[in-house]
Design brief:
The complex is a heterodimer of chains A (338) and B (365). Chain A contains eleven helices and 16 strands. Chain A is of the alpha/beta class and 338 residues long. Chain B has a domain of 220 residues: NAD(P)-binding Rossmann-like Domain (Rossmann fold). A seven-stranded parallel β-sheet of chain B has the order 3-2-1-4-5-6-10, with helices on both faces. In chain B, strands 7-9 form a two-stranded parallel sheet. In chain B, helix 2 crosses helix 3. Classes of the chains: A alpha/beta (338), B alpha/beta (365). At the A-B interface, helix 11 of A face helix 1 and helix 13 of B.
């Protein structure tokens, strides 16, 4: 890692507090946090107090004036495009939180701005850095399990992310609910493991607001992929990849391993690596990858260009959404929904 | 939602809970009421965010915040679940906040458990409440009701308490939780589950809540609620087991003798209490992990419970119930008349299990 890489953070909400903070603290000898910006002064101060050298600034423009090599855009999705494009224009490289933008137009403008500025813009698809997802990638890449037959995924449970305020649930701020949040991750992983999936059908339960339950039907390598996502009820998380000679099952909370079940017999076996790895460290690995890439080296990143198909797919899903059947609603309520 | 609300504005405290969520959903989609979900933390607005509603974040212990959240509401429904401190401690703060906010009536979600999990024969709204009960939840609800009606005695805000029994339906722990325990092999019946389950379908409860908004004779009263049919616990289990494909023959029937809690159980109870957990949650992750490791290494924790059925006193009392309370007064004074019959309630409940992601068989066992 480059000694003295200057970093600035826009947005001091939950993801910065929970993950970027510890990732940067463990890299103080290699990178320095020059400054932070958040419209909420208390949140900004809570982050900055861990970094005596970091300045709290009262505008995004002031943050840009610090001249950081790398700007982490961890603000609400509604300002990702504006802030990322401004940072790229100011000569910084940018690591942007997901979802990349509220729509394909904005995301494309971001990618174009990066190209025009000759700077790196990557989206923090942090799950790419988990040992478990890397194991899946390798198992698929060997081809030993044969062709893909089917994909099923469930992820979710009651929403517990420590958000600061309810603007998180504003469609204009977040751009979406569970699909934009968790769906983006799973679609990205399918793109990484297999190929960009294609859209088939999408249902959710939004009735004027944001969805908490979503059902996304895709095609991936010509076979069906069904993603069921929820901020509602807990069921075991599982991404199940059924291949001709075996099934890989990854549970999202399992950072370091997957379950492999071979078709020709034997019980399920656990494949694990780097057992001490934590989710927080994946954020550190993402920052390391950014710094390595800025230095011109190879890095495991989801570049803006690479992220565009996922943004396009999510946007299409919202555009063509159908209302989920909620079988408990009384006829009068169902009429109200319609 | 196309209809223009013509009924009262209803604030729902605890809108993220099982009952609170369904109140919000039914009232909003019903179109007659403007509903305002109120939750303790912003994350609690996730379910309500399906609708374009102006939710509020207010800790029910914080009187000023709750008053601000309730301003403009005619009715407040107190549907907050929690531990003893929450149940007892939020009654006064919510009452005073609602009074100052200019609300007209508070509907408090109490519980039929004020008469115990195994109520005496002939139990009804006139039966005196017993303060000698082994389950703390029951005592918490009794205390909360006492506080509520004492406040009503000297306050302007009208107050009604409802006492439902086992509220079931979509998102109920009695359904989803039971499905989970059946699937994991932790479910059990006590004495074959022949005891009576004082079940009420969630929509029938919400209908009773709505009746409380305007019923003139309801002020200052508590009402037991129930349904026309009372299933056995075995029947409830059979329905859920059938839906998720678990063979009822594999659900063990156990007896139950109350254990005597030891010192380690009490230490663990303290460690698991809400204030201690809140304090631990406030610590940096590395420190709370370290403390957890210290506890584990100290030997001060009780041994982990063995996998499989672990019967509790509460479940034993529930499943040994021979009687359910009578709810004639709710019928007479509130007009309580459950509109969703049992078969339809169970059909919707089974369908929700499929919606939630359970692999369902479609039969009811």
């Amino acid at each position: 890692m480059n000694a003295g890489m200057g970093i600035a953070i826009a947005g001091c909400g939950a993801v910065t507090r929970e993950y970027y903070l510890s990732a940067l603290l463990s890299r103080r000898d290699k990178a320095s946090l020059l400054g932070v910006y958040d419209r909420d002064a208390a949140s900004m101060t809570a982050v900055a107090r861990h970094f005596p050298e970091a300045r709290c600034v009262d505008s995004f423009e002031a943050l840009m004036a610090l001249g950081a090599n790398l700007v982490i855009v961890a603000s609400p999705p509604s300002v990702h495009a504006e802030q990322a494009i401004a940072a790229l224009g100011a000569g910084s490289h940018v690591l942007c939180e997901k979802p990349m933008a509220l729509g394909l137009d904005a995301a494309t403008a971001m990618a174009n701005a990066a190209r025009a500025a000759g700077r790196l813009l990557a989206v923090n698809m942090v799950r790419r850095h988990l040992p478990a997802t890397r194991i899946v990638e390798r198992l698929i890449a060997t081809g030993g399990l044969g062709p893909l037959q089917r994909i099923r995924a469930f992820e979710g449970g009651p929403f517990r992310w420590p958000i600061r305020d309810q603007s998180y649930f504003s469609p204009a701020v977040s751009g979406g609910g569970i699909l934009a949040d968790i769906g983006t991750h799973i679609v990205d992983l399918l793109s990484l493991w297999f190929e960009e999936p294609s859209f088939v059908r999408y249902e959710d339960d939004a009735m004027g607001g944001l969805e908490v339950n979503a059902l996304l039907h895709l095609q991936c390598r010509g076979v069906p992929a069904v993603l069921r996502l929820s901020r509602d009820w807990e069921r075991p998380n599982a991404v199940e990849l059924e291949l001709e000679r075996g099934m890989i099952c990854w549970r999202a909370e399992d950072i370091t391993g997957v379950e492999l079940r071979l078709t020709d017999g034997g019980g399920p076996m656990r494949v694990e690596e780097n057992a001490a790895f934590t989710f927080e460290e994946a954020f550190g690995a993402q920052i390391d990858a950014m710094v390595d890439a800025i230095a011109g080296g190879p890095a495991r990143l989801c570049t803006a260009q690479e992220a565009l198909p996922t943004v396009a797919l999510i946007e299409r899903a919202y555009r063509e959404r159908e209302l989920m059947t909620m079988p408990w609603l009384q006829p009068m309520e169902a009429a109200g929904v319609g | 939602m196309s209809a223009v609300p013509s009924g009262p504005v209803v604030g729902v405290i605890g809108a993220n809970g099982f009952i609170g969520n369904r109140i919000v959903e039914m009232l909003h989609l019903g179109g007659r009421h403007e509903v305002r979900p109120i939750v303790r933390q912003a994350s609690g607005l996730a379910l309500a965010s399906r609708f374009a509603l102006a939710g509020r974040v207010a800790d029910a212990f914080d009187e000023a915040a709750t008053e601000a959240a309730l301003r403009g509401c005619d009715i407040v429904v107190h549907a907050l679940a929690g531990d003893h401190r929450t149940i007892v401690g939020t009654v006064a703060t919510v009452y005073r906040a609602a009074e100052r906010a200019g609300c007209r009536r508070l509907v408090y979600l109490s519980s039929a458990m004020v008469h115990g999990q195994s109520p005496p024969p002939g139990c009804d709204d006139a039966t005196p409440l017993s303060h000698k009960q082994p389950i703390r939840y029951n005592l918490s609800k009794i205390k909360a009701e006492e506080r509520l009606f004492a406040l009503r005695g000297r306050g302007r805000l009208e107050a009604v308490a409802l006492r439902p029994g086992i509220v079931f339906g979509p998102r109920s722990q009695w359904i989803g939780g039971l499905a989970d325990s059946l699937l994991s092999g932790e479910a059990y019946l006590i004495d074959g589950g022949v005891g009576l389950c004082n079940a009420i379908y969630i929509d029938n409860l919400v209908e009773a809540i709505v009746r409380c908004f305007d019923a003139p004779a309801a002020d200052g009263e508590a009402f037991l609620l129930g349904e026309a049919e009372t299933p056995s616990w075995r029947e409830v289990y059979r329905r859920v087991a059938g839906a998720v494909g678990v063979d009822m023959a594999k659900v063990p029937s156990l007896g139950f003798t109350p254990p005597v809690p030891g010192l380690m159980d009490r230490v663990d109870e303290w460690r698991q209490s809400a204030p201690v957990r809140a304090a631990l949650d406030a610590l940096p992750k590395s420190l709370s992990r370290g403390l957890g490791a210290f506890w584990a290494a100290s030997g001060a924790l009780p041994p982990p419970r063995p996998k499989g059925p672990n019967p509790t006193l509460e479940m034993a009392l529930l499943q040994r119930a021979q009687h359910v309370p009578r709810w004639d007064r709710a019928r007479r004074l509130l007009g309580h008349a459950p509109s969703v019959p049992a078969d339809e309630a169970w059909r919707r409940t089974r369908a929700w299990l499929a919606f939630a992601g359970y692999t369902t068989r479609g039969d009811d066992g």
